Amino acid sequence: MADPLHVPNLLQNWRERAFLPFRDGVEICPLLEGAPGVALLRYAPGAGVPRHRHPGMETILVLEGVQSDERGDYPAGSLILNPEGTAHAVWSGPGCTVLIQWNRPVEFLPDNGAPEI
User: What is the pTM of this model?
Assistant: First the structure.
């Protein structure tokens, strides 16, 4: 069994952490790499992630800003649960930072009329 991962003071220092390019306008700060995985994602204003399916559970906590998908807008403090088999595109009008946990990496889908990102 792997040792537990301890990330001290995450709520106090997440803004100072090092982020890496992930997608156009989206940066990632990996906290636990692989599957399952945990990371911080930072969206620039107007940035997003294309339509994708979740082959495992994904959990998102919006730390700052507003994250959106086809179902609605999620301001800071929102907890978003995307169960296995669900699909959506994600974007942020004003920009946002989220804490994300996934059981398995997402599967990107062809664009079939999803909202513009």
Answer: 0.86
